[in-house]
Amino acid sequence: MRTIKDARYIMNHVADRMWERYNIFIGDPDYIAMCAQVRDKINVEFINEEKQKNDLQQIYDVLFKGVTVRVVWSVSRQCVKTVLPIE
Hints:
Largest sheet: 4 strands, antiparallel
Strand content: 35-45%
Number of strands: 4
Order of helices and strands: HHEEEE
Distance between the termini: 34 Å
Shape: globular
Number of domains: 1
Oligomer: single chain
Number of helices: 2
Radius of gyration: 12 Å
């Protein structure tokens, strides 16, 4: 059975990765604020972009809650899809 990646799934995934990789707890309002921050290019640094089958993904370093975190932005969905570790 295939997982349906709706808005709730994505928010939960991002929250889980944020906790796992940065020890930062985020709730729905935090996630919405982070998406707005990336969408409006506030305190973000563009790193890279790559084409996916049905989307263009952009990677940004974002200053969020006083910590620089690396996020993957979905251009088509206009939301943060996941959080990556900064290597």
